[in-house]
Amino acid sequence: MVTTLPKVDVVTVGVGWTGGILAAELARAGMKVVGLERGKDRSTADYLHGHDELRYAFRYELMQDVSKETITFRNTRKQRALPMRQLGSFLLGENVGGAGVHWNGQTYRFFPYDFEIYTQTVNKYGRKKIKPGYFIQDWGLTYEEIEPYYDQFEKTCGISGEENPLAGKRSNPYPTPPMKSTKALDTFSRATKELGYKPYRIPSANLSEPYKNPYGLQINGCQYCAYCERFGCEYGAKADPVVAVLPAAQETERYTIRFHANVTEVLYDGESVKGVKYVDVLSREEYVQPAEVVALTSYVMNNVKFLLMSQIGEAYNPNTGKGVVGRSYCYQILPGSTGFYEEEQFNTYMGAGALGTSINDYYGDNFDHSNVDFLHGGVISMTQTGKRPIANNLVPPDSPRWGKEFKRNSLRYFNRTLTVVSQGASLPHRENFLDLDPTYKDAYGLPLLRMTYNFTDQDRKLHQFMTKKTAEISEKMGASKTVPTPTLGDYSIVPYQTTHNTGGAIMGKDPEDSVVNNYLQHWQAENLFVVGASAFAHNGGVNPTDTVGALAYRAAEGIKKYREKGGSLV
Q1: How far apart are CA 146 and CA 167, in angstroms?
Q2: In Å, how far are 146, 191, 229, 286 from 139, measured between CA atoms?
């Protein structure tokens, strides 16, 4: 028997950054909001004894349970997709706060080029610069239009940073000063300046000093403990949804979170959505939550899966190239070079998730692409996120894998290595997409999402280019031996790379080539908003969270407008 609950103004599916931002904004605007979270409640008190590398970093305490919900994966359509049985390439969050709890806190903005990549590319290089098979398109809004929402999210988080000389213009400085510097970061800054580049400190959600955000919520100063990525912050010094937005919604008494609520269907009648159906994962009881507005605020994969299962919009067909739901899935590439030093020592076991220095001289179209066979670029950084003892044991590649010499090199180089890292942009390709698996099902009998993905010629050429640049910087930093990352092969679902997955329900100007408009309002269901990195028309060469937060604030504004006037917002 299915129990139908009282109707509310808004129901959000997922309680992470996007669900939290919508809850805070809409409940404070007077709406009754319900957030459905399939995991459990938690707070900073849960992490008071959380520096357990084995439990959190390797056994994934904060992550999605893939025995109940996972994806299937294949590189090409000719292969049979198989279930991902253990988290590897990316780490999907679960429980309140979602992936926003275990993130590093690197809070870069995308560049003006990202939002108008098609127009700027064609205007400068001509249409032939875009190769067949790639879906290159503008986002449906400009950097100038999204900038106020970037500013709003950064003030919510209290981001610590400094002006990036190559980025889009800012309306305000960062709310707090940049984090401390270190010997490693100073070495990178010196080398990049000598090479003619423009280094700046990474914008960080690990705060340099205590801060009270516009909601009146306190975020504390970072302790540089090195337990950010894959961990929750017991100090409340890393801006996350639990610290920075959810209390603002809860104090209105118009916001309710229902835990252990696994959504199985968005109720759609062909014109509008009526609410959602969910299962209480503890009691196995089914419920319908009616709502005037439904907001999908889960992770990329789940947002797309909900649309496909509920048949809202036309699913992408790789044979014809038609359909938009599931199209334009993107990931990233990670070029880099590790330097081994004979004399200099660096204490890289202290750090923070977003402690670092970057250059953007090779990001977007900040350099001339006339004589290279790829588009876009990426950030190059020196980060000191804090090494941890189980995960790190860098030795020169000619070292034995065990024995006396291996132990000697382990002891010698544990504080004599630095890695210059890069994130390269990912552009959507016709053969990279998400759909429903025809064979495998989840714990509730629903089809698993299937990922078909491989690196493309664009990825490989960009990877080669950026690897060379990182090696040049490593050598300039004084490394006695520099080891570049290997040539890019096929994408593998293991090992870990980044949790920077995007696309599948992209935004745009036209329902012919996008799922949502620039308020993230669904073209085929005006009271449905699909909020998150699923809306990205491509993936940039930096971390996506700042753009996710900015789009969430814009979506919240869109929902307010829709509730006042109804209809399409564009």
Answers
A1: 14
A2: 11, 36, 30, 38
CA neighbours closer than 13 Å in the CB half-sphere of residue 163: 6
Instruction: Name the E strands within 54-135.
Output: 71-74, 82-83
Nearest 5°: the CA angle 2, 98, 387 is 155
Asked if 530 and 505 count as a contact pair (C-beta separation under 8 A), the reply is yes
Helices 457-476 and 183-194: crossing angle, nearest 10°?
A: 100
The confidence score (pLDDT) of residue 389 equals 85
For 482, the enclosing helix (H) or strand (E) is strand 481-484
State the chain's mean pLDDT as an integer.
Answer: 96
Amino acid letter, 387: K
CB 462 within 8 A of CB 378: yes
Q: Fold for domain 2-565? A: FAD/NAD(P)-binding domain (3.50.50)
Helix (H, G, I), strand (E, B) or coil at 17: helix
In the structure, what pLDDT confidence band is assigned to residue 164 with cuts at 50, 70 and 90? very high
> How many whole angstroms separate alpha carbon 287 and alpha carbon 439?
27
Position 463, amino acid: H
* 525 close to 272: Cβ distance less than 8 angstroms: yes
pLDDT at 49 over 80: no
Amino acid 568: pLDDT:
92
Q: Is the dihedral of CA 182, 186, 192, 198 positive or negative?
A: positive
Residue 164 CA to its chain's centroid (Å): 21
Provide the residue type at 194 as one letter.
E
Residue 8 pLDDT:
98
Query: Phi and psi (nearest 5°) for 472?
Result: -60, -40
Residue 416 tokens read as 């004599």
Q: Do residues 174 and 159 make contact, with C-beta atoms less than 8 angstroms apart? A: yes
Residue 17 pLDDT exceeds 90: yes
Token representation of residue 502: 């995007």
Q: What is the pLDDT of residue 227?
A: 93
CA 510 to chain centroid, in Å, comes to 25
Among 102, 500, 522, 538, the active-site one is 500
Q: Which DSSP string corresponds to 511-561?
A: TTS-SB-TT-BBSS-TTEEE-SGGG-SSB-SS-SHHHHHHHHHHHHHHHHH
Task: Give the residue-averaged pLDDT of 402-428.
Answer: 95
Is there a catalytic annotation at residue 500?
yes
Cα 4 to Cα 310: distance, rounded to the nearest angstrom: 18
CA dist 265 and 13 (Å) reads 10
Amino acid at 74: R
Say what the alpha-carbon torsion angle 467, 472, 476, 481 is, to the nearest 10 degrees.
70
Cβ 263 vs Cβ 41: under 8 Å: no
Choose among 495, 558, 427: nearest CA to 22: 558
Whether the predicted pLDDT of 422 surpasses 80: yes
Output DSSP code: residue 516: B
Give the DSSP H/E element, type plus range, for residue 464.
Answer: helix 457-476
End-to-end CA, the chain: 40
Whether 308 shows a pLDDT value over 80: the answer reads yes
Q: What is the pLDDT of residues 535-561, one digit of tens each?
A: 999 999 999 999 999 999 999 999 999
Alpha helices in 33-110 (DSSP H): 53
